[in-house]
Amino acid sequence: MAESKHVVLPITGMTCANCVASVERNIKKEKGINTAIVNLSSERATVDYDPTLVKLPMILQRVERAGYGIASGEADLYIKGLSDDNDARRLEKAFSAQEGVLSSSVSFSNERAKVTYIPTMISQQDLRKIVKQAGFQAVESGDSDLDAEALAREAEIKYQLRLLIIGLIFTVPLFFFSMSLDFGLLKVGMHSNWTQWVMFALATPVQFYVGRQYYIGAYKSLRNRSANMDVLVAMGSSAAYFYSILIVIGVLPGHVYFETAAVIITLIKLGKYLEAKAKGRTSEAIKKLMSLRAPTARVIRDGQEFEISTDEVTIGDIVLVRPGEKIPVDGVVIEGRTTIDESMLTGESMPVDKKSGDTVIGATLNKVGLIRFEATKVGKETALAQIIRLVEDAQGSKAPIQKLVDQISSVFVPVVIGIALVTFLVWFFAVPPAIDAEVSQFTRALIKTIAVLVIACPCAMGLATPTAVMVGTGLGAEQGILFKSSEALERAGKLTVVVLDKTGTITRGQPAVTDIQLSNFPAGEDELLRLAASVEKGSEHPLGEAILTEANQRGLSLSDPQGFQAQVGSGVSAEVDGFKVAVGNLRMANEMNLKVDELQAEIERLQAEAKTVMLVAIDDVVHGCIAVADMVKTGSKEAIDALKAMNLKTVMITGDNQQTANAVAEQVNLDQVIAEVLPADKSEKIKQLQQEGAIVAMVGDGINDAPALAQADVGMAIGTGTDVAMASAPLVLMGGDLSGVPKAIRLSRLTLSTIKQNLFWAFIYNILLIPAAALGYLNPMLAAGAMAFSSVFVVSNSLRLRRKKLTVD
Predict the structure, then answer these.
(1) Which residues carry out catalysis?
(2) Does residue 336 contact residue 370 with C-beta atoms inside 8 Å?
(3) How many angstroms separate the Cα of 429 from the Cα of each of 424, 444, 632?
(4) What is the sign, positive or negative, of the torsion defined by CA atoms of 542, 548, 552, 553?
(5) Is 404 strand, coil or helix?
(6) What is the pLDDT of residues 87-121, one digit of tens each?
(7) Buried residues in 309-338 as b, exposed as e (16+ CB within 10 A)
C-alpha cells in the first residue's frame, strides 16, 4: 500500500456545523480518501489520502462542488536571469509541478511571476526556492513574511463588513419608516400604496445583494442533498419578502413585511461579522508563536559576516548572536557563554546557562553573552516550527465530545424545517384567530413559521467544541504544554491517577554529591574531595563523574593520578601527590581490610536516605566518605502537592530497589510506590491500574518510556527538549520539571468545562427558543437577533479561557 499524504486546506464560506458535515461528506466521496476532518473554528480541512488513487486537484474540486472555496495567497515576484520566453515557460512549469500551487503566470517582458498558492501547503520561501532551483533569482515585490491565509481571511471579513454597512444603510431607514407607519407617526391616504413601494425599494438591495450569499449557499447545500444555516435564513427572509411583494402588486390584501426580511438578513450578517472577528482571536496563540521567529540572522561565511533572512540559513552555517538578540534557528554552541531566556517556548521563567556544546533553540532570547553556534535545524525542522505544527494539528482534530454534536447537526436543519411546517399548519388550521385580529390567518401562520426558521442556530453547536479547543491548545503552547490532539486535551481532564517515572522525571537523572563526612582528617573536606576527584579523573563511572563535577564546581585544583587502577564493582585507586588514595564502596573496604567503625553510623544514615556512599582511604586508612545521589528536581514536591490538591492519586514507578524508591517517595510525598520494575514491564503495571478502574496518566521522558506512555490513557513526555515531535506521547511538556503536569491537567479541565458550557448554551438555546417561536412568543426580527448573537456568545465564552490561570492554588 502506498504511503498516505497529509494536507491541510483552508476552507472559506462555512457558516455552521452542517457546512462542516457537507465538506467532509463530499471529500470522502473521492476514492482513496482515508480521513477528512473539517474544523469550523479554524476553517480548515485536514485530509489524509492515497496519492496513487486521488490527486490534490480532485480534492479541491470536491470542496468547490460542495459550494465552498479554498483560501489562497498570491506571490508577486520579480525574476532575474530570464533569457527568453522559453525560460518563462520553463519556470511556469516548475511552479505548476509543485503541489499547492493553484496557478502561475510568468512574463518574460516585465520579468514578473504571479503565483496563486494554498498557504497551508506552500510558502513564498518555498516558491523562491523553486525559482532558485530552476536557475533564476527571485526578488520579492511585497512582504514575503505576511501570512497569506490570514490575509485571505481578513479580506473576507472586510467584504462581510462592507455588506453589513450596505445592509444597515438600507435597513435602518426601512425599519424606522415601517415603525412610523405602524404607530401612525406618518399620515398617508387609505388607498395610497407608495409607502409599500418605498419599502420594496429599500428591502430589495438587502435581500438580493447583502443576502446573496445565503441564496448561493442554500442552493449549493440543497444541490448536495443537505441543508445548512443558509437554507433557514433564505427560507425565512424570502417568505417575508415574497409574501410582501404579493401584497404590493395586489394579489393578496394585508400588511407588508419588507422590514422583517431586511432586518433578518442584516442582523444575521452583523452576528456573522462579530463571530468572524471573535474567531480570529481564538488563533492568536498561533500568531504569537509565529511572531517569535527572528526575521534575520548573522552568519559567518568565508570569514565574513553577513546579515541574511532566517529562511536562508542552512544546516552547518555558523551563526553569530549578540546580547539582546533572538536565536534565529536551532543549533549547538561552538564559542562563547551566555544565558538564554527560553520561557516563550518552555514556560520556564529562569534563564538557562549556555556554553560550548549546549543546544540553543530558535526564537529564544540571548540575554548577556556573545555566542557563535552551528545551525543544526532550520526551516520546518526547528523546534518552533514543530510546536506550531503540533498545535495546528491538535486544533484541526476532533474531540470525542464533538461526535455527538455532529450527529445532531446532521439532522438539525431538516428537523427545524419540519417543525416550521408543523407550526404553519397548526396556526393556520387548528388555532382560531382572535376576534379583533389585525392580520389574516395565513399571515399569522407565516410569521410564526418565519420566526421558527430564523431562531434555529446550528452555528453555536458547530462552534462550541472547536473554539474552546483552539483557545485551550493555544494557551497550553504559550506555557510549554503541547497537546498533539484534541482527544488528549479532553481525556486529560478526566484523569484519576498520575504515574511518574523516577529517574529524569521526579529526579534530575544525574548523580550529584550531597554529603561529605570526615574521620580524623584535619585537612578538611575540600582536600578530601580534591584527592578523591584526582583519582576519579581516570574513571568513566557516573559516580566518579559526580565527584569530579563537584570538585570542579568548587574550583579545586586537581592533580594527575599515577598508577590508576579500577576494580570492577568495588572502586578505583591511584597515587596522588605521593599519597595512595582509594575511592570505593564497602566491598572495596572489606577487600582491603579497611576499618570503617567511626563512620558506620553515618554510612547507615546516608544509605537509609537512598544515597550511594563512597569511602575515601588515604594510605590504607579511611578518612571520610562522600555520598552521591540522584537529586530530586526543584519543584517536584510542589507539583506533586498540586496534583494531590486536585484529588489525583500520585504513583511513582521505578526500576530502583524498594528502599531507594521509598526514600525518594518520602521526600516528595507520593501516595504509592511501584519499585523494582523493568522498563519493559512498566506498561503492564499501568494496565493493572486501568483494570482497577483508574484513568491513568504516565509521565516519562518520551523515548525510553514509550510502551508505558502508549498504554496510559494520557501519555505525557517531559523534558524532550527540541525534539518535540519525536516523543511518543499525545502530550508533550517542553519544560524539564514537573510543574507542567498539574498545569496541563488544569488546562484540560478548564477547556472541558468551557466546552460543556458552550454545548449547554447551544442546546438549551434551541430547545427553549424554537418551541417559543412556534408558540408565537417571538417576533421574527427578535428571533434573528437572538440567532445572530448566540454564536458570538459561544465564541466569547471560549475566549474567556485565555484569562484563566493554570497554576493550582
Answers:
(1) 501
(2) yes
(3) 8, 11, 79
(4) positive
(5) helix
(6) 888 898 899 889 899 998 888 777 788 899 998 88
(7) bbbbbeeebbbbbeeebbbbbbbebeebeb
